[in-house]
Amino acid sequence: MQMITHISSRSVRRVAATWLAFAVVSAGSAQAGFHVWTTHGPDEGSVVNALAIDPTTPSTLYAGTQTGLFKSTNSGNRWEALNLASTEAATRALAIDPLTPNTLYVGTAGGLFKSTNSGSTWDSILRDVPAPALDVISALAIDPATATTVYAASYPDGDGQVFKSTDGGRTWSKGSSVGLVFALRVDLSLPGTLYAGSASGVLKSIDGGATWQVILNPSSSAIFHVFDVMIDPVTSSTFYAGTQNGVYKSTDGGGNWHLTGPGPSASGTRTIAIDPHTPTTVYTGTNDGVFKSTDGGASRGEFNAGLTSLTINALAIDPHRPTTVYVATTNGVFDIEQAAEDSPTPTPTNTPRATDTLAARTPTNTLKAGTSVSTPTPTSPAIGTDATQMAGGGGGCAVNHSHATDSHPFARLLAPIVILWCVRRRKPSAVA
């Protein structure tokens, strides 16, 4: 500690102030995207109908919009338009081959297209089907176990059907009429079983889409819109259905359903996404924005800070970093970076707050500085306040570096000056 003996009290305070100010600015910048949605397009905030994320390279995204198909290779920061060579630009559905991600399928208002080189070139498929079937492709699904098996829902002339291909789209067979289909999901645990969210409820097929039966229509009416169906990636008997009246859940493979909540009801739930690592975390996209549940849908909170459009058409979760979520809205694609450690359940006022005392805290490292500042502070254990253990303005401090290899960047930034501060306060005679 010989060097410290030559540092004056004024110098310590000056260095402390400089480092602390820099740390506040740096922390604010680093946390600006946490719990707040941001957007970078595409196409000047156009209506986005569909999203797909590359399962092996999650920084690659595809967005289907009313004006065409776009691709990003840097997590949505920049986008490029892809040429489908279609007279109908509106893109309604996207599907990426889970085994060969450079193969993808795109459903538009003018037919079905396939690319085997990540969107550089395209071929029109579903050509052996009578022309009316090409009017609108509303949903797509790929069998993850046999990726050459592809399903496409079409809605020509008011008579919707689901088509099946077992050779990657070269030839197709047509199933029975099902009406308008919004979503298709393949059951991994039951070969040949798939589910459809439709204008008449949740439909189930056990023969690869040849025939269908209704398994959810609580109103027993001719029209009960189910806009999305999701299967729990860990417990395949657990389903979620996004409907015009909210989110329904089944824990017995679709035999029985109950309405979850509280949360959106009359506004309608348009899309659902389940955290692949923590399947009790469920996101729902509605006409009133995004809602998040961390208890399997029993409760949920608004998750809308930063959104400029509350009409959510699609959701996508980064499979490698599930705290990163993307949404397709009527005003572009938005993404959010949540705290990596124990991200909070959102609240209706999910916005950063000003606090009177700055603190950096990690689960294994304690770093507290009793200097009074005002800064936005996420309500996460990674960076938060602990007023009961701090002395505001008095210069009290506590440093716990028993686990120095597991420290938060903000804590590492402040650590040198806080240690210096502690030495100054506890050994005043050691500093001139």
Strand order of the largest sheet: 1-28-27-26
- Any idea what the CATH architecture of the largest domain is? 7 Propeller
Low confidence ranges: 1-7, 18-33, 342-414, 418-423, 425-432
- Give me the count of strands: 31
The structural domain count equals 2
Helix content: under 10%
Sheet-strand content, in percent, reads 35-45%
The structure class reads mainly beta
- Terminal-residue CA separation: 13 Å
Query: What's the average pLDDT?
Result: 76
CATH class of the largest domain: Mainly Beta
Query: What would the CATH topology of the largest domain be?
Result: Methylamine Dehydrogenase, Chain H
Write out the CATH superfamily name of the largest domain: YVTN repeat-like/Quinoprotein amine dehydrogenase
Query: What is the count of DSSP helices, taking H or I runs of 4+ residues?
Result: 2
Overall shape: it is globular
Description:
The protein is mostly beta strands and 432 residues long. The protein has two domains: 2-33 and 352-430, no CATH class; 38-337, Methylamine Dehydrogenase, Chain H, CATH 2.130.10. Helices cover 9% and strands 37% of the residues. A hairpin with a 7-residue loop joins strand 8 and strand 9 (123-125). Helix 1 (9-31) runs antiparallel to helix 2 (409-426). The longest helix is centred in the first third of the chain and has 23 residues, at 9-31. It is globular, with a radius of gyration of 26 Å. Mean pLDDT is 76; it is low at 1-7, 18-33, 342-414, 418-423 and 425-432.
